[in-house]
């Protein structure tokens, strides 16, 4: 019996989108990839360019420049379209213009008859994931934001440099807003199974607990540092999005820090926010409830409250909804 081919539709082939398409092709993850962008020439040019790499790709794939009708048969629609931060701008500053863009995009995707999984990366990602869920009418498990997947990868990298251990043996999460109010979950961070606190105590000559603050600042502010230098960040998030795509298409039950719908856990209601979650072919099947310490709980609640307050104007304007109303 022939296995059904899987299809990813990518909306937005700018820096993040085209890097994602390139990484997806190189890792041989999707059978079909359709590229869609308001700037049609860019999407068409990318499709042509990527097709010229097929001879060197791990498997034969189909890539084309398409339209919203192609989303009907897509397993996943990845959205990386919209404005990015200019130097000095925060992610939250992008809310108004990107919500307007998302309304058009998500409604166009849904008109095609799409019934797959949305993966959202555009900023502010937590709020735009919420808006995608509302605009689409799909169940919460089928709408996923990249959340703190990139921040978690940045934290693992910084810790791996500090402790001189392979990044893949460092386990630590960033939770909360993908943005300035995010938090490191030190209480569950470990290197090769040994907690970061124990590891620091094991080598007091080399390590100091106060260095963790500097490590976190580097993670939280990484996007600003990169944007100052080259105008955008795209490779890290592109690889994070491929990781998420693979978790869905390969039904992995992978634990990733994504922007998931939280309604009751972590003391938060009716919000998309960065949390560890189990991801498989159905999307997000479980938000993992960690035992955060008091300081972490406080920071998570504060981050959630910042997101709620920030999203108030778009909830009112587009959905006539009061974000403080709580549980649905
Ligand atoms: N979640 C994360 O961790 C990260 C998120 N981002 C975000 O990703 C988004 C994209 O960033 P870049 O790729 O650097 O921007 P970019 O400006 O290079 O690309 C944006 C693309 O969106 C397209 N677009 C705009 N309106 C559209 C519409 N209505 N329909 C279809 N396509 C449309 C543009 O033509 C352009 O090709 C930004 O919001 C950025 O902040 C960036 C890095 C990391
Ligand atoms: C731009 C952005 O969201 C990031 O690199 O984290």
Automatic annotation (TrEMBL):
The gene is ldh. This is L-lactate dehydrogenase. NAD(+) binds at residues 12-17, 37, 42, 68, 82-83, 98, 104, 121-123, 146. It comes from Halobacillus litoralis. Homotetramer. Beta-D-fructose 1,6-bisphosphate binds at residues 156, 171. Keywords: Allosteric enzyme, Cytoplasm, NAD, Oxidoreductase, Phosphoprotein. The modification Phosphotyrosine is found at residue 224. Pfam families: Ldh_1_C, Ldh_1_N.
């Amino acid at each position: 019996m022939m296995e059904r081919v899987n299809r990813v539709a990518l909306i937005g082939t700018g820096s993040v989108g085209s890097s994602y398409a390139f990484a997806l092709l190189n890792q041989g993850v999707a059978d079909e990839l359709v590229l869609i962008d308001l700037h049609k020439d860019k999407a068409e040019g990318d499709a042509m360019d990527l097709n010229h790499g097929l001879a060197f790709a791990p498997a034969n794939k189909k890539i084309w420049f398409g339209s919203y009708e192609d989303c009907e048969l897509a397993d996943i629609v990845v959205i990386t379209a919209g404005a990015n931060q200019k130097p000095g701008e925060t992610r939250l500053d992008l809310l108004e213009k990107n919500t307007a863009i998302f309304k058009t995009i998500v409604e166009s995707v849904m008109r095609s008859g799409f019934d797959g999984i949305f993966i959202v990366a555009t900023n502010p990602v937590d709020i735009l994931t919420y808006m995608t869920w509302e605009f689409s009418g799909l169940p919460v498990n089928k709408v996923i934001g990249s959340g703190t997947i990139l921040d978690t990868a940045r934290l693992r990298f910084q810790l791996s440099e500090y402790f001189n251990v392979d990044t893949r043996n460092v386990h630590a999460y960033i939770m909360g807003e993908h943005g300035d109010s995010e938090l490191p979950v030190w209480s569950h961070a470990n290197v090769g199974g040994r907690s970061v606190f124990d590891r620091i105590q094991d080598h007091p000559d080399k390590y100091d607990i106060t260095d963790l603050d500097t490590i976190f600042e580097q993670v939280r502010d990484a996007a600003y540092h990169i944007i100052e230098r080259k105008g955008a960040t795209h490779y890290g998030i592109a690889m994070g999005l491929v990781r998420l795509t693979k978790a869905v298409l390969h039904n992995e039950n992978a634990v990733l820090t994504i922007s998931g719908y939280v309604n009751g856990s972590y003391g938060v209601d009716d919000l998309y926010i960065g949390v560890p979650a189990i991801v498989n072919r159905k999307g997000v099947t479980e938000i993992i409830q960690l035992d955060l310490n008091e300081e972490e709980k406080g920071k998570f609640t504060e981050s959630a409250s910042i997101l709620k307050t920030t999203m108030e104007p778009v909830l009112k304007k587009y959905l006539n909804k009061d974000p403080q109303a709580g549980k649905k």
